[in-house]
């Protein structure tokens, strides 16, 4: 198919099976305007359904992952226009429609909606010097893209209250220490090298198993423990119906490398 060009994104396949989406609205530090989110949803949808892609990286520039929702776009909104148009609801499409893992690689600012976008991804790698925060309180509002819920689950209530009530920033080093990020790296280059390695590793496995693994881990955020464990067991049982489970276990017994059919 003909290559699609985007106004606010760059899209590449830097490693086999890895789709990379780079937010590129440098003049506004990647502020997440509605047209940018529309493009992001469209590219994520196409990567999600591409038969060759196994993992997706979402990143920004060394200076900014994203500095939040577009404040200039939001400034004139009214309650009724925001409510009737479900403002910001489409931001979370990626959490409901993309079954492949999305890895956020965060350098620079990840503020407000930028922090929330990273938190919607399946895992976060960042630089130690990255700047996270939910500064909405300073604008006379509150997080609107899941920050009060996902950040609280990640860091606990007391710390989330402190961050959201003061708008204080936290570093990538703290994000790693608190479990918001899986890993933090000294430089943007090290961050990108490592996120590519991890994404390539994930993309080398059975897509059926990878998608199921993402699904069961994410269920832990929504379900009580007993329900979550039962859900996991159902999915585990169902994977005995996949070809890749037979291929993976047979290859282990025969000391061979599995050749996944992704079925
Ligand atoms: N929306 C719109 N434009 C933004 C923006 C945003 N969130 N963040 C930065 N920009 C623009 C600036 O207006 C500026 O544009 P001009 O050159 O046209 O003036 C340009 O990007 C560069 O920004 P600065 O000059 O401010 O750069 P800096 O290096 O001095 O400061 C910063 C960087 C600390 C990140 C600062 O830009 C800032 O505080 N940005 C806003 C952060 C914020 O409050 N984010 C939360 C938004 S609310 C939200 O996201 C709601 C939600 O929950 C969904």
UniProtKB/TrEMBL annotation:
<keyword id="KW-0276">Fatty acid metabolism</keyword>
<keyword id="KW-0456">Lyase</keyword>
<dbReference type="Pfam" id="PF00378">
    <property type="entry name" value="ECH_1"/>
</dbReference>
<dbReference type="GO" id="GO:0006635">
    <property type="term" value="P:fatty acid beta-oxidation"/>
</dbReference>
<dbReference type="InterPro" id="IPR014748">
    <property type="entry name" value="Enoyl-CoA_hydra_C"/>
</dbReference>
<protein>
    <recommendedName>
        <fullName>Probable enoyl-CoA hydratase, mitochondrial</fullName>
        <ecNumber>4.2.1.17</ecNumber>
    </recommendedName>
</protein>
<comment type="similarity">
    <text>Belongs to the enoyl-CoA hydratase/isomerase family.</text>
</comment>
<dbReference type="InterPro" id="IPR029045">
    <property type="entry name" value="ClpP/crotonase-like_dom_sf"/>
</dbReference>
<dbReference type="InterPro" id="IPR018376">
    <property type="entry name" value="Enoyl-CoA_hyd/isom_CS"/>
</dbReference>
<dbReference type="InterPro" id="IPR001753">
    <property type="entry name" value="Enoyl-CoA_hydra/iso"/>
</dbReference>
<dbReference type="GO" id="GO:0005739">
    <property type="term" value="C:mitochondrion"/>
</dbReference>
<dbReference type="GO" id="GO:0004300">
    <property type="term" value="F:enoyl-CoA hydratase activity"/>
</dbReference>
<keyword id="KW-0443">Lipid metabolism</keyword>
């Amino acid at each position: 198919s003909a290559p699609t060009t985007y106004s606010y994104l760059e899209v590449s396949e830097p490693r086999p099976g890895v789709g990379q989406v780079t937010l590129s609205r440098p003049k506004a530090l990647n502020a997440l305007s509605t047209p940018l989110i529309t493009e992001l949803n469209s590219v994520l949808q196409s990567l999600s359904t591409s038969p060759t892609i196994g993992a997706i990286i979402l990143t920004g520039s060394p200076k900014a992952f994203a500095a939040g929702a577009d404040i200039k776009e939001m400034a004139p909104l009214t309650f009724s226009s925001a409510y009737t148009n479900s403002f910001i609801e489409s931001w979370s499409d990626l959490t409901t429609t993309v079954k492949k893992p999305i890895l956020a690689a965060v350098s620079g600012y990840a503020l407000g909606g930028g922090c929330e976008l990273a938190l919607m991804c399946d895992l976060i790698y960042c630089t130690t010097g990255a700047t996270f925060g939910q500064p909405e309180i300073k604008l006379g509002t509150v997080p609107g893209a899941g920050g009060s819920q996902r950040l609280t689950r990640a860091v606990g209530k007391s710390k989330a209250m402190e961050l959201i009530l003061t708008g204080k920033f936290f570093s990538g080093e703290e994000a790693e220490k608190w479990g918001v990020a899986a890993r933090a790296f000294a430089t943007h280059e090290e961050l990108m090298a490592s996120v590519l390695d991890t994404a390539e590793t994930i993309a080398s496995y059975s897509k059926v198993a990878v998608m199921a693994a993402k699904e069961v881990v994410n269920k832990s955020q929504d379900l009580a423990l007993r329900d979550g464990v039962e859900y996991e067991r159902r999915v585990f049982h169902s994977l005995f119906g996949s070809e890749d489970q037979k291929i993976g276990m047979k290859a282990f017994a025969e000391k061979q490398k599995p050749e996944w059919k992704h079925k």
